[in-house]
Amino acid sequence: MYHYDTLGDERFQELCQALISASFPNAQCLPVGQPDGGRDAYLQRILRAHRTASTVRDLIVFQVKYVRSAADTRSERDMIEDLIKSEGPKINRLKALGMSKYYLLTNVKGTSHLGTGSIDRVNETLSKAFDVEAFCWWRDDLDRRLDGQASIKWSYPDILKATDLLEKLVSGHLGEDEERRRGALRAYMNSQYEDDAELKFKQTDLRSTMADLFVDLPMRFSPQIAERTKHLTAQQVIKARDIAAWTFREGVEYERNSQKAAGYLIDPSDVPRHPRIVLEGAPGQGKSTVTQFVCQVLRMQLLDKKHQIALLPEQFRRPHVRIPFRVDLRDLAKWLAGVDPFVSKPQSLSENEPRSLEGFLAGQIRFVSGGHSFNVSDLTAVAKASHMLLALDGFDEVADINLRQKLVDEINKGTNRLISAGGYSLQTIVTSSPAAFAKSVRFPPDQWSYFELLPLEGEQIEEYTTKWMRAKGLKDAQQAQLRTILENKLREAHTQYLAKNPMQLTILLSLINIRGASLPDKRTAMYDAYMDMFFSRESEKSEVVRDNRDLLIDIHRYLAWRLQSGAEAGDNGSIEHGVLKATLFTYLDKEGEDTTIVSSLFDGMIERVGALVTPGYRGPTNLKCSLCVNILLLDTSMKRHHIRSMTSQ
After folding, report:
1. Lower CB count within 10 Å: N or C terminus of the chain?
2. Positive or negative CA dihedral for 272, 275, 278, 283?
3. What's the mean pLDDT when you consider all of the chain?
């Protein structure tokens, strides 16, 4: 019934350990692939004699044996002979430690003939050879134990080999409305799968499939836990550190080696190590793409997209399967504010719709699935029967501060309610740019683990460049020319920073491809070409940027000059946020612009336009000009222009 042969030796052992734990909750499971002394799991009990009050240690040992050719009739005999020969000395040592029972687990199919079948013969043979009670869990035994363990099947979906994996995983667990609920989920996932099938960046005329263009990005635990936890109690700080698994050093600094983001989030371990994650990164750094990719991989599994799965790198082909729900937090914010986000014209939400996370998810499923009936009770039934992933994208793109706080409160409450529904596990990932100020609205660090995406490393730059050229259909000669220009440009200080995140690198590659050897050498011209594409991208994500694009570009030029000039005069290249607002007001007034938009411009620049501020945490008061713009802006002609402008004022 179940295809154990697809697992291989080590994963089969892990599956068996999960079944052992289900039957013996206190069993100790040992790491696979290490010397184990004849034990893959064991259960140790202390037995007390009633009359003498003495204690005896009782040890139950479990050993897993995987046979590659389980259908071979010789497998049973060979397995038992090899087991007695190889494990005999180990068993004697375990008996001296109090072993009273021995369980053998195997993927071989036993036979049931009374006295002569393999089931009876093996139990008797092992009991005599080891001089303890011995039992064997054959393939049929594993099948029956697995039938009632839906959670384990979610963790090892490759044993099902079903054309409808979703049906196999939830069958019998979604209540009397199972078929309707399953149909709505399938339609919802199919629609989101089609929507997310391509990575699109229309400013550079780039379209490619997820598998063809995705490059996994390095990330680490955010090193700013000390700043983030200043307002917490000592107990909350300890909890925050435990959640994030920090390594503490010298009282204030935390270190953690980087790892690949998608690989970490899609790890096939049974329970997520960090069930609540805030994934931070600068605009264009790829945080949305990471969650898009993770959700897409999960949909491939549940929708049985065999061809697409085969195109994925090996490490993504066997994820821990979850039903993914990908949400634009701007839509959720509208829902909580009583506005229907699923219609083209602003319209009040029906009074019957719950203003909650679950209410929104049910509404999204109805809309995306094409109108299937689905409500909060249906979502709760799904939560009870499955592992789930909530990918909540774009926290920083919700401009209204009050709405942000409402989002934080409702996401915390909603995820708590879904967890308490009695499901297997729920993982929640929120993507956001780093908070600009210490008092910014954020998710509580004693409940959420903060990760940050890191700049692209040389390996990822090379991988992405290769995939980008292939996606653009460049011929060999064109690829060679582009590589040569890119290598030369990356040696220049004022362009090497433009390859530090996927969006910046995409713009740089597009500029090289369009202009070739005529790519501007002067920093101002390079800045103009780059910022044109950058602001085109940001205009789609922010009304403030869209409505004030040209003004924001001019302000960035001016502020970058101010910051750099200050740095050259001995400052630290930063500006206090109150001074920044005053500077914006003065600039707008001198240029004859509307000064009433200072606040909206300030928020738009800080929250969305990463060219002004550093992509990491920026402290409670100061903002710094990022290195790439710092270097790009400051050629001599631009300095002279701003000096004349300032002296004339």
Report:
1. C
2. positive
3. 79
| Structure confidence at residue 635 as a pLDDT band (50, 70, 90) | very low
Beta bridge partners of 247: 255
3-state secondary structure of 173: coil
Cβ-in-10-Å burial (0-12, 13-18, 19+) of 41 comes to: buried
Query: What is the spatial distance between Cα 364 and Cα 324, in angstroms, rounded to a whole number?
Result: 13
Residue 352: its pLDDT value, please? 92
Say which residues have a Cβ less than 8 Å from residue 643's Cβ, sequence separation at least 6: none
The answer to whether residues 243 and 274 touch, using CB atoms and an 8 Å cutoff, is yes
State how far the Cα of 357 lies from the Cα of 376, in Å rounded to an integer.
Answer: 10
Helices (H), 270-356: 287-302, 306-311, 329-336
Helix residue spans in 287-430 (DSSP H): 287-302, 306-311, 329-336, 357-368, 376-385, 401-420
Distance of CA 558 to the CA centre of its chain: 38
The reported pLDDT for the residue numbered 329 is 96
Q: CA-CA distances (angstroms) from residue 521 to 510, 525, 547?
A: 16, 7, 31
- 317-356 tens-digit pLDDT: 888 889 999 999 999 999 999 999 999 888 999 999 999 9
pTM of the model: 0.75
Cβ pair 387, 166 in contact under 8 A: no
Structure tokens at 642: 């701003």
Number of Cβ within a 10 Å radius of residue 496:
15
Residue 618 scores a pLDDT above 50: no
Residue 570: its pLDDT value, please?
A: 63
Give the span between the Cα atoms of 398 and 615, in whole angstroms.
18
Instruction: Note the pLDDT of residue 250.
Output: 34
Place of tokens 């602001």: 535
Handedness of CA 202, 203, 208, 211 (dihedral sign): negative
Q: How far is CA 79 from CA 62, 65, 127, 187, in A?
A: 16, 8, 15, 47
Task: Say if residue 612's pLDDT is above 70.
Answer: no
Cα–Cα dist 134/312, whole Å: 43
Chain centroid to CA 124 = 50
Q: What is the largest CA-CA distance in the chain?
A: 106
What pLDDT is stored for residue 148 in this prediction? 81
**181-192: pLDDT as tens digits:** 999 999 999 999
Q: List, in order, residues 6 or more apart from 77 with CB less than 8 Å away.
A: none
Residue 61, φ and ψ in degrees, nearest 5: -115, 140
